[in-house]
Amino acid sequence: MSSVWRSSVLVLVLVLVLADHNVVYGARQLQVVPSGFVQTRGTDFMINGSPFFFNGFNSYWMMTVASQPSQRYKISNVFREAAAAGLTVCRTWAFSDGGDQALQMSPGVYNEAVFQGLDFVISEARKYGVKLILSLSNNYQDYGGKPQYVKWARSAGVPISGDDDFYTNAVVKGYYKNHVKRVLTRINTLTRIAYKDDSTIMAWELMNEPRCQADYSGKTVNGWVQEMASYVKSIDNKHLVEVGMEGFYGDSIQDRKQYNPGYQVGTDFITNNQIKEIDFTTIHAYPDVWLSGQNDNSQMAFLQRWLTSHWEDSRTILKKPLVFAEFGKSKKDPGYSESGRDNFLNTLYSNIYNLARNGGIGGGLVWQIMAQGMESYYDGYEIVLSQNPATADVISQQSKKMIALEHT
């Protein structure tokens, strides 16, 4: 038997064994994520008592697309390609308020077809070993969010002075709580598991990027986070809860405001995350938008300071793990190139990995992964893994490095 033949047989046997355990897709190895609930211990994420590090992605559009059964293959394709690149956490929306294809058509009135779309997303994530962070509302008017809740209240005759009454008005807060309860107690029509009992879900996010122009100190948002995080935990004490913050600093530690991109948005990274029902911290960063007049080097320097300051504060002050929950490079930027985006991701991934080696950060979630044929959803940050092999390789290499930390 020649050495070449022996090697070929060995490779074939290994592939067959791995395939039997569902850890091979195409030529890439998949990470098998345990089925337990994600928990925290100090500044680390854990599953079944073992460390959990991850590389992940955003795909906000999944529920809406999955509400049309003929389009569900796009969700399957994204999870398949993401799992092939070692991506094990996905952040997506569990809200769509008013408007076309709404989940919540009016307060407390739900579209079953859209809910079944979310059922499918959770079922497919479970199939491919991907944990989900599900966001429950939006600061912006996209998919309804804060403006839609306020509009509903105003239409019902409730005296409303502005969108930021979302955080303080009893009627509006009641609408939000009803949505939380409806989602958390939903029984998946495919898996027959209540969302609140499904370990496929990693965490509930209170709101995507809360902001409050009516109170830049962060105190108004703080009161809302305290009330809503407690409410979520009263229904579901199995899952983690996070705010959905971008990471802007407020008034609690004055010298931290130097790390903001020149302004505040009405949140306070420190006090908003000190609430005991909040299990981990998040940051987002878009220096190409926040610092649009600066060059790439200046934007990257800001990004590194942003990440490091929040990592330090999460570890030493908050004593909770951090997730870099949104970042990306837009094709709409002047001078954009795919190689430039890949270099950006490589640099940021290296920073995340180097910090993770010392504990305190679980991973990062790139914005955003899409399927082929979704041009109407493109925002400039889209990545179709099957069409961008170089970028997919950058992402895959980061996945391997993060997964390896679980065994060090």
Structural account:
Its EC number is 3.2.1.78. InterPro entries: GH, Glyco_hydro_5, MAN-like. GO terms for molecular function: mannan endo-1,4-beta-mannosidase activity. Belongs to the glycosyl hydrolase 5 (cellulase A) family. With 408 residues, the protein is an alpha/beta fold. The chain folds into 2 domains: 30 residues; 372 residues, Glycosidases (TIM Barrel, Alpha-Beta Barrel), CATH 3.20.20.80. Helix content is 40%, strand content 15%. The strands form 4 sheets. Strands 12-11-10-7-6-15-14-13 form an 8-stranded parallel β-sheet. The protein has a 3-stranded antiparallel β-sheet with strand order 3-4-5, with no helix packed on it. Helix 5 packs across helix 6 and helix 10 packs parallel to helix 11. The longest helix is centred in the last third of the chain and has 23 residues. The chain is globular. The chain starts with a helix and ends with a helix.
